């Protein structure tokens, strides 16, 4: 109840600040429309927004699943083989120095205007946080556990699956939560570069036609979608991970 | 710094207690016995009375219980077999859990247990392996005095028939548990005469308490 009240409070505060700024500076609606104007746009275009939101949502979810799996599997491989770590880690770090956004046009060229170029963008953005968080957890197994495993004559494979992996699950969870925040950014950037649907596309379209209220409405929908996704995924992950910690 | 032993004989089925301040190399010595990698150079040889090397015949109990929070008590006790990919002898697991007094807790997770109970699980896990030699690295030092003395009694009872090498910095523990006590100071290892009674000696035994005092005095010498 407390959190609900706090949430309501911050929504009211944001709306008040927003209307205040519009009123005080006497901003025309094509620069910054007030909350009521955006609210109207939200209701008038509900069907349109829902349709485009569903495209973006699909891209984000597929991106999250693929990026999460790819990141986790890569981390496992790197944890298993020291040689692979030596070869691939600097390479992976280098790819992080490249601005991923610059790749968006190339991805569109390769994968077309449809769903997959956006999914690829989301995957590219979330792969590294998931991979590095999980790998870090896999490699930071308490020494005492490894000693114990050694005296018990454990198999290398069992040490990985029965000790390193469960111990690293909270780290993987942290990476996945971060991914839930990043994935929508990737999808929208993909949509900006070239697409025919999605909230990013709708924002560009609205801005081109000076429908600033619709642009803000699309942004609002995107924000609410991202936060909801983050909270739901976070809750789910916490429930799974709580079984693996004291 | 170096620790020299001309010979450290750990008699079979007896408790040899190595007493010394932190940093004197006690734990390193145990790691050598347990076949674990050490940062120090070990020069010398380890021989056994039956002529077969120590190899995988050493069980270990450490200061931390090293239980896996995601596994139940019985899964933790069966850890060795699970990590080796062997079939788990469930009857034996349960009987050991009963012997350490945790019959009602077999399906609980370590997070639901007290510190003393957790060390009991660690003891059962050690017993599960049935190794003739067991090394103990200050396993009771994190427990309160009452629980510690109970764990000492239980360990002596359940480790009967095994050759135990224990490392501790607690003179009281050494005085209670050692069939033989070796005082380790930088560079020297000295045998200390033990009281007449058999371990675990009563907590209020005058000879044991007197020895405890002497040991502490010896530990403080040269400061």
Features:
heterodimer, A: 246 residues, mainly alpha, MetI-like fold, 10 helices, 0% strand, elongated, B: 223 residues, alpha/beta, Rossmann fold, six-stranded mixed sheet, 8 helices, 6 strands, 14% strand
- According to CATH, the homologous superfamily of the largest domain in chain B is P-loop containing nucleotide triphosphate hydrolases
What summary fits the major beta sheet of chain B? 6 strands, mixed
What is the average of the pLDDT values of chain B? Answer: 88
* Topology order of chain A in helix (H) and strand (E) letters: HHHHHHHHHH
Q: Measure the end-to-end span of chain B.
A: 17 Å
Would you identify the CATH H-level superfamily of chain A? MetI-like
Rg on CA atoms of chain A, Å: 22 Å
Explain what the structure shows:
The complex is a heterodimer of chains A (246) and B (223). Chain A is an all-alpha fold. Chain A has one domain (33-244): MetI-like fold (Orthogonal Bundle). Chain A has helices at 2-24, 35-44, 46-80, 82-97, 104-111, 115-139, 143-151, 156-193, 199-208, 212-241. In chain A, helix 3 packs antiparallel against helix 4 and helix 6 packs antiparallel against helix 8 (156-193). By secondary structure, chain B is α/β, with parallel strands linked by helices. Chain B folds into two domains: 1-57 and 131-223, P-loop containing nucleotide triphosphate hydrolases (Rossmann fold), CATH 3.40.50; 68-130, no CATH class. In chain B, strand 3, helix 6 (145-158) and strand 4 (163-168) form a beta-alpha-beta unit. In chain B, helix 5 (115-128) packs parallel to helix 6 and helix 7 crosses helix 8 (206-220). The longest helix of chain B is centred in the C-terminal third of the chain and has 15 residues, at 206-220. The radius of gyration of chain B is 18 Å and the shape is globular. The mean pLDDT of chain B is 88. The chains are: A mainly alpha (246), B alpha/beta (223). At the A-B interface, helix 7 and helix 8 of A face strand 2 and helix 3 of B.
């Amino acid at each position: 109840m407390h959190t609900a009240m706090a949430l309501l409070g911050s929504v009211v505060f944001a709306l008040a600040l927003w209307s205040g700024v519009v009123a005080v500076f006497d901003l025309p609606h094509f620069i910054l429309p007030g909350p009521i104007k955006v609210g109207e746009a939200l209701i008038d275009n509900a069907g349109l927004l829902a349709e485009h939101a569903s495209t973006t949502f699909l891209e984000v979810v597929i991106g999250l699943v693929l990026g999460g799996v790819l990141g986790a599997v890569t981390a496992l491989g790197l944890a298993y083989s020291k040689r692979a770590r030596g070869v691939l880690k600097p390479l992976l770090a280098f790819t992080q120095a490249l601005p991923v956004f610059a790749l968006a046009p190339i991805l569109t060229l390769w994968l077309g205007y449809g769903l997959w170029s956006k999914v690829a963008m989301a995957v590219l953005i979330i792969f590294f946080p998931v991979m590095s968080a999980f790998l870090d957890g896999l490699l930071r197994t308490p020494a005492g556990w490894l000693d114990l495993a050694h005296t018990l004559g454990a198999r290398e494979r069992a040490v990985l699956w029965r000790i390193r992996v469960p111990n690293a699950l909270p780290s993987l969870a942290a990476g996945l939560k971060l991914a839930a925040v990043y994935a929508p950014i990737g999808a929208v950037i993909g949509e900006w570069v070239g697409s025919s649907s999605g909230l990013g596309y709708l924002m560009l379209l609205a801005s081109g036609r000076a429908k600033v209220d619709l642009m803000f409405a699309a942004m609002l929908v995107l924000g609410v979608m991202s936060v909801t996704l983050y909270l739901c995924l976070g809750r789910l992950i916490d429930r799974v991970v709580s079984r693996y910690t004291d | 710094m170096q620790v020299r032993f001309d010979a450290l004989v750990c008699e079979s089925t007896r408790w040899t207690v190595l007493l010394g301040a932190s940093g004197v190399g006690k734990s390193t010595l145990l790691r050598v016995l347990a076949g674990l990698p050490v940062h120090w150079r070990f020069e010398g040889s380890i021989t056994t009375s039956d002529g077969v090397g120590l190899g995988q015949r050493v069980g270990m109990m450490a200061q931390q219980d090293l239980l896996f929070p995601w596994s139940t008590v019985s899964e933790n006790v069966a850890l060795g077999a699970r990590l080796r990919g062997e079939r788990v002898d469930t009857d034996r697991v349960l009987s050991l859990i009963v012997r350490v007094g945790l019959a009602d807790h077999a399906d609980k997770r370590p997070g639901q247990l007290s510190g003393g109970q957790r060390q009991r699980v660690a003891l059962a896990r050690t017993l599960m392996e049935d190794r003739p030699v067991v090394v103990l690295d200050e396993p009771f030092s994190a427990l309160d005095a009452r629980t510690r003395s109970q764990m000492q009694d239980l360990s002596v009872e359940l480790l009967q028939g095994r050759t135990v090498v224990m490392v501790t910095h607690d003179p009281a523990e050494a005085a209670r548990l050692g069939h033989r006590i070796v005082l380790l100071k930088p560079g020297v290892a000295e045998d200390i005469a033990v009281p007449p009674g058999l371990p675990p000696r009563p907590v209020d035994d005058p000879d044991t308490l007197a020895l405890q005092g002497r040991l502490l005095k010896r530990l403080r010498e040269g400061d």
